Recover the amino acids of this structure.
């Protein structure tokens, strides 16, 4: 009986180790990581719209050109426009307008049946 208990404990420990290692991700040919590396960085609105992945972190430079809803704005750079969400706690304390150059850092949000937008985590006014 003692050996059976030890055997069960050993199986449980080995099983837990196997479960923990299951979170590693393949990054070789054909993987999402490999495709991202081949495509290069996402640095413009056009890049985000064309190949930005859900939850991908991006930094863009351009202008917030208009408010379109509660915490929703339209952002423009030289390549195009995209909707962004700026929470009140992220909004800069210094006023800015559609002619003020800003740098936004946030995450791409790709939801089924909705247009792509960026959830802004930080916004910096450029001088």
């Amino acid at each position: 009986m003692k050996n059976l208990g030890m055997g069960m404990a050993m199986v449980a420990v080995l099983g837990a180790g196997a479960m923990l290692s299951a979170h590693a991700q393949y990054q070789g040919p054909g993987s999402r990581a490999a495709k991202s590396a081949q495509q290069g960085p996402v640095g413009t609105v056009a890049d985000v719209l064309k190949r930005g992945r859900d939850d991908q972190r991006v930094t863009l430079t351009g202008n917030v050109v208009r408010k379109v809803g509660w915490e929703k704005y339209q952002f423009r750079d030289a390549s195009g426009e995209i909707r962004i969400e700026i929470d009140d706690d992220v909004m800069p304390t210094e006023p800015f307008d559609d002619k003020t150059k800003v740098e936004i850092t946030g995450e791409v949000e790709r939801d089924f049946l909705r247009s792509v937008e960026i959830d802004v985590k930080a916004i910096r006014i450029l001088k």
About this structure: The chain has two domains: 1-40, 41-125. The chain has a mean pLDDT of 83. Residues 2-21 form the longest helix (20 residues).
